[in-house]
Predict the structure.
Amino acid sequence: QVQLMESGGGSVQAGGSLRLSCAASRFTSDTWCMGWFRQAPGKEREGVVSIDSDGFTRYADAAKGRFTLSQDNAKNTLYLQMNSLKPEDSGMYYCAAALGFCSRARLLYWSYMDYWGKGTLVTISS
């Protein structure tokens, strides 16, 4: 079982930056994937960026050029640096993970993930 806890959300104006963190419990699976998903009120949950155990990273088009995923394996932590934030980036951001083989084509599919954090709220004002 994997426990995930997000932090770093907040309220900033458009053009600002935030850095989200996801602390994960240790697990023994050799293959896995982890990523960030978000959901705005009235909208579907969507993938932002995910990484697999080989280091392959997939970004959503909306995140490319503005968001950067990084990891600290020693601390079992993922980070999401978000720059040039826009109002449409607002929503609840969730950290998620799956164990075992992860299809690179489905890294941004929320239904592909098995474990979820409780989320951290991001609000971007214009």
Summary: The longest strand covers residues 91-99. The CA atoms of residues 36 and 105 lie 16 Å apart.
